[in-house]
Design brief:
This protein is an alpha+beta fold. The protein contains three helices and eight strands. It starts with a strand and ends with a helix.
Length: 170
């Protein structure tokens, strides 16, 4: 029976100056993605497609690193980012690992609003068979929530700073 866990995070980020330019800023897809995620861990594969190596995670003394293929979808004033594929490095052969990511960012009346939903399903690795599934699922939820909090913190600092730089450049 696979383990399954999920987490979600909402964002409401007030922007004080030049809110009317947020729609045009969000259209700068590559720039916005680089501001959302650590550019040193991000590789552009094609327009609207990226590979992102998530920072190494340590869970029960196992080091793992998800490598996620992402694609973007743009609409006026809205940027969506979804995972289309994911490889898990560090757990050995895991055939049934599945990661789902759906997120969006929109230019609202007060600034930026968004939401990210992250879910994982995987069989219990042989090295962790002695740990009860409920403990593993609780740990998994905590890890996913931590990843989303980290991204939210980055968005709150880096994205606003990048938007301000973009406004000065344009």
């Amino acid at each position: 029976m696979p383990l399954a866990f999920r987490a979600s995070q909402q964002l409401q980020l007030g922007v004080c100056h030049q809110k009317d330019r947020l729609v045009r800023y969000l259209a700068e897809e590559e720039r916005v993605v680089k501001a959302l995620l650590d550019p040193s861990q991000l590789e552009r594969l094609a327009p609207g497609r990226y590979r992102y190596a998530v920072s190494h995670l340590e869970v029960f003394q196992l080091k793992i690193q998800p490598v996620v293929e992402l694609h973007t979808r743009l609409e006026p004033g809205r940027l969506e980012l979804e995972a289309s594929d994911c490889q898990l490095e560090g757990l050995g052969l895991v055939d049934d690992f599945q990661l789902q990511l759906g997120s969006w960012l929109v230019a609202g009346d007060e600034g930026l609003e968004g939401e990210a939903n992250l879910a994982v399903s995987v069989s219990q690795p042989p090295l962790l068979r002695l740990i009860p599934p409920r403990v593993l699922e609780a740990t998994g939820r905590s890890v996913l929530a931590g990843i989303l909090r980290s991204i939210k913190g980055r968005v709150g600092q880096q994205l606003v700073a990048d938007f301000e730089c973009w406004c000065q450049e344009h």
